[in-house]
Write a structure and sequence with these properties.
With 594 residues, the chain is α/β, with parallel strands linked by helices. The chain is 64% helix and 9% strand. A six-stranded mixed beta sheet has the order 6-7-8-3-9-10, sandwiched between helices. Helix 3 runs antiparallel to helix 5, helix 3 runs antiparallel to helix 6 and helix 15 crosses helix 17. It is elongated. Bound molecules: adenosine-5'-triphosphate. It is a multi-pass membrane protein. Keywords: ATP-binding, Cell membrane, Membrane, Nucleotide-binding, Transmembrane, Transmembrane helix, Transport. This is ABC transporter ATP-binding protein.
Amino acid sequence: MGNTPRLIRLVWSAAPVWLSLSVGLTLVSSLVPVAQLYVGKLIVDQVVAILASETADFTPYLTLLVVAGFGLLLLREMLGQFNTFVNRVLSDQFLLHANVQLLQQAMRLDLAHYESSEFHDVLDRAQQSGSNYPVRVVELLSRLLGSITRLIGLLTLLLRFSPSVMGLLLVSVLPTFWVGIRYSSRRFWMNRRQTPSRRLADYFYKVLTDPKYVKEVRLFNLGTHMVEQYRTIRQEFNEESRRLAQRQSLAQLSIELLGGIGFYGAYGLVLWQTIRGLVTLGDLTLYAGAFQQAQGLIESILISLATLYEYNLYVSQYFELLDIAPQVTSPSRPKPFPQPMRQGLRFQDVYFTYPGADQPTLKGIDLTVAPGECIALVGLNGSGKTTLLKLLTRLYDINQGKIVIDNVPLQQFSLRDLRSQIGIMFQDFARYALNVQDNIGFGNLPQRQDIDLVVQAAEGAGATAVIDELEQGYQTILGKMFSGGVDLSGGQWQKIGLARAFMTDAQILILDEPTAAVDAIAEHDLFQRFRQLTQGKMTFLVSHRFSTVRMADRIVVLEQGKITEVGTHDQLMVQQGRYAEMFELQAESYLGHG
Ligand SMILES: Nc1ncnc2c1ncn2[C@@H]1O[C@H](COP(=O)(O)OP(=O)(O)OP(=O)(O)O)[C@@H](O)[C@H]1O
């Protein structure tokens, strides 16, 4: 139950007024049924008294009691409806708050988290739990509070009979509590155990319904196979759940019997007291009502406690995500990013190993880059080019060595400041299912409404011809996810992605395979404008196309995580090393020699 106070604080911060209203209403409305019972008893006693008298007629007192009963009924209905309304608003507001918290945390976490399957288990569980359980706990707590208040009222009435009645009451409901707790936690652990398989089933589900996979799933005939995999996993879950539910029902049935015995035992006791004239007939009706209600209430309180225990386990999964601390963080007192850079950037003996990997991906990287210089990174697949750029953007932090800008280590800048100084286009750039203006403007969020700037970036990336073809120009929704969306070809998308990188006035530009998907003419165009586009910017260019690589001031060759050659195109050709070998191979295949 340890998460309950924290959860209440969270609800309080989401909607303090609605929470107070809900608690107040619950307290008041739970006492009304107790008053109703008491009025009922007074009515019966009054009727018995009238029957024993000579007049045998409605007395003003009896009329008043009936009116009071009716008033209580109305009050109960009104309070009930108002409470339902308040709880609806409260849970909507809280759900939004809880989800925003989850998203904000997801945003703060490191890229490395997203590359670990354990993290995805935690995230999945938090999403499943976070979207439901915190609100359920709040509703349950409110119900619990109401039930306890009502029970206190009822017990006050019942104490008039005898303490043994109370004893019978407790004995008859405790087993229900025990069964509730036992099966709640079993269900929770079952669900938790199932997380990795459930994620696999969800993955098949996603592949079968995601437009990205539609083509391959059909052409390779993967559909039936994947549906079968999905069905098998889900069926196993259903089977496990059925077995648990069966055992729970049996246990529940046997303890219901106990409850019945408790009620009738106590009923017999009070009947005996009535016959002996120890209590009135009104008391007997009060007792029957109050005992049955109290029994139901205690049972429901205990079940609620068991459920609260279960829900708390789920809520703990939500907090488990919120409690993960990001490793890549801003310093508490960041240094301002140099404007402009003077000495430039330096990698000093940098080593980096991916979390969970046993070999370092980068080993002893030393490189100095002047402001405004354009560097091309060249190397075979997996040699570490993209990794180097991920370190520069602090998507990961290095394990050893230093990366400094104007002699200040990257970690001493705020993440926001550093990243706003880097314009970037990754190989696997994002394709937002939003309009063209947003797709480009996201490269510089504060200026994304400045259409002139967006058009300028599009021109730089050679994307204007693509956009001009679109019926609604910059307002056209891209992708097929939303109504009216238009999909683009791979190369066209790449031009949009490139335009996004050109949106900023950042001092550093990173282009990872900017022309991999564009046609030769577009690449040539870009080549013509490249100098002008990157003027004054420190630029990193990763490419397997040597026509693109030649645009750089210096070329850095990476092999198995180490820098093996650095120089201009001409210098490296003279050296006749790895670069010259790769360049000649590509040239040969183009020219058809060899
Ligand atoms: N997120 C990751 N977790 C673990 N290892 C990774 C991760 N990303 C890359 N690697 C490993 O690091 C090495 C370098 O990858 P990197 O993406 O930097 O290569 P690259 O030179 O950019 O390759 P390419 O030319 O194919 O883009 C590879 O061996 C790869 O397996």
